[in-house]
Amino acid sequence: MKELINLVNEHLDKYLPINYPEDIFKAMKYTLMLPGKRLRPVMCLETARILGADIKKLLPAACALEMLHVQSLIHDDLPCMDNDDFRRGKPSNHKVFGEANAVLAGDALLTFAPQLIIEKSTELTETQVLRIVHEYTKFAGAYGLIAGQVVDIESEGGKLVKSAEETLDFIHLNKTAVLFRLAVRMGAIGAGADDKTIEKFDNFAKKFGLAFQIYDDIMDEISSFEELGKTIGKDKNSGKLTYVSLYGLDSAKEKFDCLINECYDIIEEYNSPIFKEILDKLKSRIDN
Ligand code: GRG
Fold it and tell me: Which DSSP string do the residues of 232-285 spell out, in sequence order?
């Protein structure tokens, strides 16, 4: 896992040199190069590897996905959204570069990412590149990430069109699971997998994404700023709809266990030490 993370970090740095005007490139690079877990690019590369592809082919797409993720973090931290002063253990983007540049840095990452896929994925076929960029645009927009964020904001204001359970699942399938789905789908497409295999990985990523969000909600209750690098207890204090607030800590843990066990079952046939390491890490932190 460490080797894959280093490879991703090296390529993120290489793909985004500081250009003119420096202020925007510095703002884009600031949050991007802070030490995130790099789960999404690693899952993209590992999916490609276990399905028989050379992971080098997928490096532009994997890095583009991390850029999209970082864009969503920068915008999520803005005063008009979650208003968070810290991210990845350091002051959030807008705290360092100001609100205007943080909005623009997010926009620039969002648009640079597909540019990167198109320009640098020289070892994928044109059809694979087109499919990957199509998935990127679909999952990043109003059919994915943005839909999740909008319903999240509306639900905080007390507007619930569906039941609390359905609303919570909708938010996190779209805000969180969507980028894990994009990770494995891009990896599988790049490896030339058939539709049935892509759907199997997609199903894995949906379950993983929901488990990951439950993990995130539990951590917000039991962890520390030092461990997470962001403000703790905000969800609870703002009365936000979360898996813990809706089901209670014990039931949230049970739900998490059930989803993680389903993930182990789906991925078992592929004998992937990386996926196993990711699942083990999340599980051990919740168990202890
Ligand atoms: C796509 C235009 C556009 C807007 C995005 C702001 C927004 C709309 C969506 C917010 C999405 C969001 C921040 C979801 C939270 C998901 C989550 C649990 C993030 C934390 O992921 P980690 O723990 O973070 O993998 P690191 O820092 O390790 O990468």
Answer: SSHHHHTT---HHHHH-HHHHHHHHHHHHHHHHHHHGGG--HHHHHHHHHHHHH
- Give 203 Cα–ligand 1 centroid separation in angstroms: 20
Altogether, the residues listed in the chain come to a count of 288
Classified as helix, coil or strand, 87 is strand
Task: Determine the atom of ligand 1 nearest the C-alpha atom of 106.
Answer: 2
In the numeric block, the tokens 């969180």 are attached to 176
The residue whose two tokens read 């490139």 is 25
What are the two backbone dihedrals, phi and then psi, of residue 90, each rounded to the nearest 5 degrees? Answer: -130, 165
Pocket perturbation via mutation, ligand 1, pick of 75, 87, 111 by most ligand atoms within 8 A of CB: 75
What is the number of other CB atoms lying within 10 angstroms of the CB of residue 204? 23
77 touches ligand 1 (CB under 6 Å): no
- Pairwise CA distance, residues 246 & 252, whole Å: 9
pTM beyond cutoff 0.70:
yes
Ligand 1: centre distance to CA 120 (Å): 25
Q: How far is the CA of 149 from the centre of ligand 1 (A)?
A: 10
Angle at which helices 195-222 and 164-172 pack, to 10 degrees?
110
Query: What percent of the chain shows pLDDT beyond 90?
Result: 86
Closest to 176 (Cα-Cα) out of 148, 218, 204: 148
Which ligand 1 atom sits nearest the alpha carbon of residue 73? 13
Q: Which residues, 6+ apart, have CB-to-CB distance to 7 below 8 Å?
A: 45, 55, 59
Per-residue pLDDT of 134-174, as tens digits, reads: 999 999 999 999 999 999 999 887 777 889 999 999 999 99
